[in-house]
TrEMBL record:
Protein name as it appears in the record: Transcriptional regulator-like domain-containing protein
Domain Transcriptional regulator-like: 7-63
Superkingdom of origin organism: Bacteria
Pfam families to which the protein is assigned, alphabetical: Trans_reg_dom
Amino acid sequence: MTHPFTDPAAIAAIERYGRSALAWELLRRDPAYRDAFGRLKALPSPGQAADAVFAARWGLHFP
């Protein structure tokens, strides 16, 4: 197995999609985040702010 820090495909993906994509990939794999997301009572509609406590806990910032 190729180490992720030397895997050319992984490096290319980070270069292509940027740090925010890498951060999202790590976050979405976190079991605690997935559990917290599953406990949200409602998802925000497009253009609306996410639950402030949830966003602050997970360091989420949306433009």
